[in-house]
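User: Run a structure prediction on this.
Assistant: Running it now.
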Amino acid sequence: MAPVRFQYKYNRDAKHDFVFFGHQPVRAYKMANRWKFVESEVRAAGRAIAALAWDPHDLVDPRPGGAGQQGGSRLEPTGWRAQIHGWIVRAARTAHEETGCSCGAVWGYGYEKSWGLRCGLTADALREQCGEYAIACVLPVASLAWTDDTWLIPRTLAFILDRQEETDENLGHTPTPCKVCGTGVTDPGRRPAAGSGGNVLCPACAQATLLSYRQQLDGKPYAKVRENGPPAQDYLCTLCDPPRPAAVWDHCHDHGLIRGPLCVSCNTMEGHGKDFLTLQGSTAHLLRCTHCRTRRSLPTNHQLAALRRHLHLERGTPGCDWPLHMCVTLIDAGSSGFDCTVRCPGEQRNRSAGFHLTPEEADRIQAQAVEEGLSDSS
């Protein structure tokens, strides 16, 4: 176990507000702009795990469908099996590249042929490379054992990981009652961030009980609004449709000025500066900073994202919804501009040829993004 890995990472596609300590779910909640847990729940989860019988020599074959034919099952692994299997395959690929193994392995295919140690990979090398990789606070690689053609895992550990997957799936479909009307809500983003974790609002009650932001604080210093202004939790998120409860006052980090209230997920996306510009109305929201608006420029942490978004729309696979930074690579070439590559996952490699973006072209793309944002806000 690795309890130090017990943390909450919110994302827009989260199915629920729980994290897992082994197979035990513990609810996360937001308070004072930080994710927290109830200590008694964490300790109870630890006791439940400690109470399980543990015999490192009681091992099970992880292959779906059993051992099957020589080389293992011909079913592809899923869930935690796929995750561990992927670590082993990548470690074997590294060993293959380092030792020049001539086993003839076909990388990326042939799951049924890749369950054992191969290509010069040793158990010690795997533990050194992947021993700190965690799943739900569990470090599985350290407990694996090996036969000629597959890896084995302690039965208790397989039980923990199976239960974690099952519970995770069930929690994603378990509605939480709205605190006003009692309607079941499955969207975790509708919980106000300042609550104890149980204050959930359905879309109708959120719109009926919270305020719509009318840009009355645009351009105000964030420090003053944080100290003496109204709480962001009284408002609806300015970007979500239908709007979620807001969690924080979003502000421009270049100039320290308020832009408006955002929910947890929108604010997290804005802070990362990667895919925020894919949200409807996001550019107009960024330009609510009066300094950015006057200067007709995007904040520093979104300028490369504007280039990625434009290049993805222009050169990427139509309909691709992968994160922009996974599809578009930009390498700063200094005063000469950027070296670029656009290749969406699944796209044929012969379409991945690089190209160069001059400073003038980059400025034009960013200026176009600003004009579109100003048009949307008018």
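The first strand starts at residue 18 and ends at 21.
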